[in-house]
Here is the input.
Amino acid sequence: MSRSEFREVINASKEKTWEVLFNQYGDIHIHNPSMPSSNYIGTATKGELNCARHCTFDDKLFLEEKITEVNDNNSFKVEAYKHNLPFLKKMSAIYELSSIGNNKTEVKMTSFASTFPGFMIYLMKGQLRKGLTKHLFGLKYYIETGKTVNKDNYSETFKNYKQQ
Here is the structure.
């Protein structure tokens, strides 16, 4: 599996960041501009071990994933178990939160992916990186401002907010 690591510093407490990233797990579409909708699967109403979510990327492409490991309020692992994303075979991610000062939290996301055929990972790495970078920026923007970012306002929001 190919491994990629991403980091984002969020101007908020670790608890507030955990609240959005983990406890609001099924509502990832609020801060991920690549996903117009998401929802919990089953009876879950908040993030917890083994809870699952359904995420859409457009009218056809979807992903279902669940939380498979939790380490207190420090980290958790997500594994995709059903999707129709072209060429992608297996996917998972580990989110780690670290308090790096007063109301500053670093989110480290380690992403793992494999493709079929295997060589496609080299062609798709840039696209995957772009999507995950958007996700973490959207998380930062949402936590810091309370405003959502979506595919329509992402470019302008990213350009203006990063300059501040």
Q: What stands out?
A: Residues 120-145 form the longest helix (26 residues). The beta strands are 2-10, 37-41, 52-56, 62-71, 75-83, 88-101, 104-115.
